[in-house]
Every structure is written in C-alpha cells, then in structure tokens.
Amino acid sequence: MAAWPSEPGRNEMKNIKGISMNRCGALLVPALLLAGVTSASAAGLKATAEIKGCTNPAISGSATIKEQVTPEGIKEVTVEMKVDGLSDGKHAVHIHEVGACEPCGAAKGHHDPGPFGESRPDSAGDEHPARDINHPYHMGDLINIEVKNGKGHMKHTTNRVTLSPGRLSIIDADGSAFIIHTNSDTYCDEETDLKKGCAGGARDACGIIRLAD
Question: Could you tell me the pTM of the whole model?
C-alpha cells in the first residue's frame, strides 16, 4: 500500500461536537455506530430448548442460551439447563449439529466448526469457571450436568459458539440440538479413554434449539 503523502496538519484531530475526526472521520463515525448496533443486536439474542427423553417420557426439562458481548467485543453465550428424571450423577451435555430429535440420533454428531480448543470444560475449576469450556475435540461439548434426587441444573458461559450469524453460530440452515447422555463426558484425558470412548455413551434426552421471539 502506498504511503500517505506528507501534508501539513494531516494527523491533526478536530473535535466537532464531541466527535474526534480526521481526514477519515466521515468513515470512522458510521463504522463506530454500526459496530455499536451490531453489539447491541448480539447482546439481545436468546434461544430456548424443550428437553424430552429419547426413550423415557419421564425425562423433561428446558434450556436457555443468551448471547452477550464482553467489553472487549467478544461474543459469548450463557447456557442454563434444568432437567428432571435423569439418573443421579453427571451426564454429558453437547450441542449437536442438526436440530432434530425424532429419533435422538437425527441430531447427528457434535457441533464442530473448529478450530479445536485446548482446555477441558471444567479446567478452571468451580472457583474460576473457564470462558473456553471446550475440550480438544468439539466446539459443541459443554460441561456435564449434575443430577441429584432426579433434578439436574447446569449453567456456564462459553465463547465457543454464538447465536448470531458467523462461523461459530449454532443457528444455521439445519439448526442444532442439545443432547444429554447417559454417562459423563470425561474429556478423553487418557489414551484408554480414547480407545473406549469418553463422550457420555447413549443418548438420554434431546432438545431442539430455537431462537426466541
């Protein structure tokens, strides 16, 4: 790119009604305004899912996903899920690549636009919850939901997926769905886990993710 010609006062800034402007000021102001509108729109996005058992009608629940934008301009979503009827213990929760639950296998594999993360969902511990709640294999892998006395609750925040359009969006042409598995996700920490599988086993419940009005 050619260098700007030397001009007297080219780098001088003018303040017009509180707006800093230079030679590109006419372009900078609309761009900043557009960025603000985009951030505000993303911050207002919300999706919901009704959770139903794959084979057990006693399993039911709901989930919400809310997108927000950090002060640094990074999009992240907070996922909250409540489920009744699962067996006590930890169960893997994943976002799968197709918004279909009849049968639960119709949701296909894990949502995975890449690139892979390098931290497991619970790597930061309870005192310092991780923003990047992904293990090295799939973007759609969330933390486990823990069930006690038949009631489960999970809430966590991640920047690995979005509701707004883009490469990480889970709101695409064929949709997305939550899948809750029979067992926990051990995040494939050991070589033996990789050989036997570690993503939670059979599918216990499913919920199609839909944008809220």
Answer: 0.70
